[in-house]
Amino acid sequence: xxxxxxxxxxxNIRLAIILIVLSVMLIYANSLKNSFVWDDAxxxxxxxxxxxxxxxxxxxxxxxLTPFSQIEYLGINSAGSGETSYRPVVTLSYFIDYSIxxxxxxxxxxxxxxxxxxxxxxxxxxxxxxxxxxxxxxxVVCASSR
Length: 146
Prior knowledge:
The protein is 53% helix and 0% strand. The chain is mainly α.
């Protein structure tokens, strides 16, 4: 097939990025109106850990992890971050989100959508560097947009 060997021009790359942004926004835009779900109440809304930047250094210590036995005491006493597994980048995003949005779920969902768009664009370029095949690049992006 001749399509495999056609290289991306700057216009094609811009168009691909626009399509990535639009498709991810279209797929996830309905999440913007939703409230916190599942563990968001424990890890964000009822947890004082991410509400103060003075807790940020604890991300790099054992104090970051919350033992399962202490989860029910979050918000009552200092029981760590509310995380039972080590996810410092996610917790950093909670610190930033709380600083900007406080407890408005819209902002947290918007941040997640923007991070997802950024990651899909990075994956698009990585697939291009590795395969140099437009069909594979397109397939990888379509699979990761969901």
